[in-house]
Amino acid sequence: MPRNATSKTAAKSAKPAPRAEKKADVIKILTEDHRRVTEMFDEFEKMKKKGDADEEAKQYIVETCCAELTIHAQLEEEIFYPAAREAIDDLDLLDEAEVEHASAKQLISELSAMQPGDDLYDAKFTVLGEYVKHHIEEEEGELFKKVKKSELDLEELAEEILQRRMELREELGISSDEEEMEAEEAPSTSRKKRSVH
User: Fold this and answer.
1) Of 189, 168, 166, which Cα lies nearest the Cα of 179?
2) Cα gap 53→139, rounded to integer Å
């Protein structure tokens, strides 16, 4: 066998070449955000239906969800919506999205001044969930479809969004998903409770 030839055994055990890493696009990133907050709203509703009185768990869900929504809204308002305004011909849809953000921000502000057990705490978070779910339906069902058909560079927007998200998380004192996963793998004595406000 020639020196540069590989045996069948060596060829079988050789690792395949790494695939080119597929870059995320902005629609996928924003949709993942939607799924994450929807799961939090659903978890809160399950707790309510079961009559779960764990106020600390409720508060954690509310604070985490509100922080995620705050960051998501800011990313859309600073980066995604302005780019979409230039790329698509449906300004009414974008105007409505921004008004929906304003309504959500109002409820988030009210919730941040409340505690579980306060009058209307559960109701406000439930209504916030209804607003957000409606907003998600419109974004994913209409806006995202129009943006996908446009000439927007979705990968470039994704990079901008990811960079700005890291900055906002740092400003708000929220650990990134990677930091949380590392913390979960660390011994329990070194874990800290995540601060969301």
Assistant:
1) 166
2) 34
pTM of the model: 0.77
Evaluate whether 197 touches 115 at the Cβ level (below 8 Å).
no
Three-class DSSP category at 95: helix
Smallest CA-to-CA distance from 58 within 104, 128, 121 is with 121
* DSSP secondary structure string for all residues of 133-192: HHHHHHIIIIIHHHHHHSS--HHHHHHHHHHHHHHHHHHHT---HHHHHHHHHS-GGG--
- Each residue of 31-53: b (16+ CB within 10 Å) or e? eebbeebeebbeebeebeeeeee
Half-sphere exposure of 27 (CA within 13 A, CB side): 16
Residue length, the chain?
197
Whole-number Å distance between alpha carbons of 163 and 105: 22
132: left (phi over 0), alpha (psi -120 to 50) or beta: alpha
Query: pLDDT tens digits for 54-67?
Result: 899 999 999 999 99
pLDDT recorded at residue 12? 42
